[in-house]
Write a sequence for this structure.
């Protein structure tokens, strides 16, 4: 099983600032990585697939990069609606599909 | 536009079987796509339970495989989850989701989720 590790667990950022989230895989997942955003009481929403491709309707302030075992999600200028929990998920080796433990982006 | 909606009992007793249904609208399950279940214990992260393709291929998380069955009812455009011998550790919000394609990779869209509590 591929273990996905996200850091930090919590990120405190002021509105308008940049946020950088990390996701590490226990072995290479190539570019087979997705990112999701989850707000309280809601289902996760797909942000990124293929490590760097924005899903339909996702604002350009969300960008992502990486391949192999190291991945990054960047929110260039945090808006109020961006404060949420973010998860990465690998789909290179399955079963099982595996998710990271999440990074909570909170208001500083 | 594909939409998914979970339904089922919100409370299950320990050692019993959890049963949930996902009703799909906007697309016929029998036409294709991968469909699946994911769960999230309160305050914790996401865990993939299993997925299936309309042609019959089904994949389960090895950690749950001995207790999980996913089945499909194409006549009602629904698919179901059964998890046997539940314990308090199975308390979670259960989501159904699809990739919207004939590949098993990411999930989009998701249902709104349903909370299942395991308690006597």
């Amino acid at each position: 099983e591929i273990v996905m590790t996200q850091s930090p667990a919590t990120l405190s950022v002021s509105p308008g600032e940049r946020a950088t989230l990390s996701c590490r895989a226990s072995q290479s997942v190539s570019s087979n990585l997705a990112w999701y955003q989850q707000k309280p009481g809601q289902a996760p929403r797909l942000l990124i697939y293929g490590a760097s491709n924005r899903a339909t309707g996702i604002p350009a302030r969300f960008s992502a990069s990486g391949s192999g075992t190291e991945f990054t999600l960047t929110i260039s200028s945090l808006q109020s609606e961006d404060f949420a929990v973010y998860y990465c998920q690998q789909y290179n080796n399955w079963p099982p599909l595996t998710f990271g433990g999440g990074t909570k982006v909170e208001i500083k | 536009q594909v939409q998914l909606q979970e339904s089922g009992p919100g409370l299950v007793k320990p050692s019993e079987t959890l049963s949930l249904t996902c009703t799909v609208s906007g697309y016929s399950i029998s036409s294709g796509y991968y469909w699946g279940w994911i769960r999230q214990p309160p305050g914790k992260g996401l865990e993939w339970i299993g997925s299936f393709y309309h042609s019959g291929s089904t994949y389960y998380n090895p950690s749950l495989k001995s207790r999980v069955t996913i089945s499909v009812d194409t006549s009602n455009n629904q698919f179901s989850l059964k998890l046997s011998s539940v314990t308090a550790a199975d308390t979670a919000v259960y989501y159904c989701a699809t990739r919207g394609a004939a590949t098993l990779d990411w999930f989009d869209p998701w249902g709104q989720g349903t909370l299942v509590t395991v308690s006597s």
Notes: The CA atoms of residues 14 and 60 of chain B lie 22 Å apart. The radius of gyration of chain B is 13 Å. Chain B touches chain A through 23 residues (CB under 8 Å).
